[in-house]
Design brief:
The complex is a heterodimer of chains A (about 220) and B (about 280). By secondary structure, chain A is α+β, with helices and mostly antiparallel strands. Chain A has helices spanning about 1-10, 10-40, 50-65, 70, 75-85, 95-100, 110-135, 195-220, and strands at about 140-145, 155-160, 170-180, 180-190, 190-195.
Chain lengths: ~220, ~280
């Protein structure tokens, strides 16, 4: 506010000079900013321990979101791009969708299965885009001690997301060890498992309107 | 004394809800397409859900949205924090009843710190210093004491509950102890009613974001809210039943999804329990 006033009241010449120096400062900042972004991203080791895997993926995503103004304003295209680049490679979305569909999965043709996965992906992105916009510079994910067997095929990694400006949120990740390393396939926010929460709704839709009805319902929300 | 003063208000509330409940029942019960073992009263529940929704859309939500739009954010959070601070007293008491001394002391510390340094609870200085809220209530206490949750039930005006949680709410109200009890001790009726009104509006306003999310992502709002409620309450009780801060994850803590269609890479142990054994 004060800054704006002083800018407005200053003489045109001064403000021109000031704008030039501002531009220069911006350029320098931008130049030093680019490598910093690249450096902040840690390589993800999907074959290491499940805890390190989750921590690295989460840190990378938070790092990207914190620097992205478009995400903070809720730009779904940008959020989609970030999810595609930083989240999806580490997620087995097909398994998530398959488990949510339960016994109805086999009723679907391969084409329907593909469409269902895509439609559900849209729903999930909308679900978490709100959380993305609320990320603050203080947001950080800290893991709780790992109690499972890190060599098991199916593990749960528990964590707590602190936001700085509100209560911390408990998030658990359920992972599966595949031939390509760890893949996240289910998520628990404050005691609520994602897949579990969609099973009844999927069953309801499919039994009433078939698989295509479910796909249409998901896509209708997506529009 | 406490008891005598709060008693007259209960029959009135009960009569009113009974009347409204009857209204919803007369309106006809919804048909149930997919019976759920956790929700044997789904037909009634759906009617009550629709009724609550109507009331909400007609009165509560517009008022809460207006309040949210017109009231400056610092004022809103101050009001929210003051109610939260009073609620913390109740949460702390429940932690005590559950034998969770650590949570009890932490919550007590929060209340003392926020009431003094936080200017009567207006600023949540405890959270800023890392002492986060530990929500708790009498429904969870009953669960920790071994009471089963019973079927899911939608209460008039109050929404999602279970038989156990309703017992918790009604029991606490009847005993004259609840987060809103101090308000009912106020003798000045207009002031008291204003505070109760503000409490309701504040509660509803804090749910606006969640409500918007559910509208955007749920295929069926009723099922979505029901399943989330059941899961969350179970998780709250389970995490406290273990007796330790960090629950051991055994198989039955995790939802078991049978996955007959798993691709070949996973087919070696198709029916093996999904979760990792603890330790």
């Amino acid at each position: 506010m004060l800054n704006a006033f002083s800018l407005m009241s200053s003489s045109p010449a001064f403000s021109r000079r000031r704008r030039a120096s501002l531009t220069a400062a911006c350029l320098i900042a931008a130049a030093s900013f680019v490598p910093a972004v690249a450096l902040a991203q840690k390589p993800v080791d999907a074959k290491g321990s499940p805890s390190d895997f989750v921590q690295t993926v989460a840190d990378n995503v938070l790092e990207v979101i914190k620097r992205d103004e478009a995400v903070k304003s809720g730009d779904l295209t940008r959020i989609n791009a970030i999810v595609n680049e930083y989240v999806l490679p580490y997620v087995n979305l097909e398994k998530t969708t398959r488990l949510a569909a339960g016994r109805y999965w086999r009723q679907a043709t391969p084409k329907q299965q593909q469409e269902l996965v895509q439609a559900f992906k849209g729903t999930l992105i909308r679900t978490y885009s709100g959380a993305f916009t609320r990320v603050t510079p203080q947001s950080s994910l800290s893991l709780l001690p790992f109690h499972g067997d890190a060599k098991a095929k199916d593990v749960v990694v528990r964590s707590s997301l602190s936001q700085g400006n509100g209560p911390s949120v408990g998030i658990d990740y359920r992972l599966e060890n595949t031939s390509q390393g760890w893949k996240i396939y289910d998520l628990n926010v404050e005691g609520i498992w994602l897949i579990q929460n969609y099973r009844n709704q999927f069953a309801q839709q499919i039994s009433q309107n078939g698989v295509d009805g479910l796909i249409a319902a998901l896509n209708q929300n997506n529009r | 004394m406490n008891l005598f003063r709060s008693v007259p208000s209960i029959p009135r509330v009960a009569r009113f809800s009974a009347l409204m409940g009857a209204t919803a029942l007369v309106a006809g019960c919804a048909t149930v397409n997919n019976p759920n073992p956790d929700d044997p009263w789904e037909s009634y529940n759906r009617s009550m859900f629709a009724f609550n929704d109507t009331v909400d859309q007609a009165f509560l939500k517009p008022i809460a949205s207006g309040y949210d739009a017109l009231t400056p954010q610092p004022v809103q959070s101050c009001i929210h924090n003051i109610f939260g601070n009073i609620g913390d007293v109740w949460s702390g008491l429940n932690s005590f009843l559950q034998g969770r001394g650590h949570d009890f002391v932490n919550t007590l510390g929060r209340v003392l710190f926020n009431t003094t340094m936080g200017l009567g609870g207006c600023i949540d200085v405890a959270s800023m210093n890392g002492a986060h809220k530990i929500p708790n209530d009498f429904g969870v206490t009953l669960g920790v004491w071994g009471m089963e949750s019973g079927p899911y039930v939608v209460l008039p005006f109050l929404g999602s509950s279970s038989v156990r949680d309703t017992t918790g709410t009604v029991g606490a109200l009847a005993a004259g102890i609840s987060p809103v009890t101090p308000v009912f001790e106020i003798d000045n009726i207009p002031l008291r009613n204003s505070i109760v009104g503000l409490y309701i509006v504040d509660t509803r306003a804090s749910l606006l974001d969640a409500d918007k999310l559910v509208n955007e992502v749920a295929l069926d709002r009723y099922s979505f809210i029901r399943d989330a409620y059941i899961q969350r309450r179970k998780a709250q009780v389970d995490s406290r039943r273990q007796g330790t801060e960090l629950p051991d994850y055994s198989d039955d803590d995790l939802p078991d999804y049978t996955d007959p269609e798993a691709p070949d890479s996973n087919a070696s142990t198709p029916s093996a329990p999904a979760a990792a054994p603890a330790q």
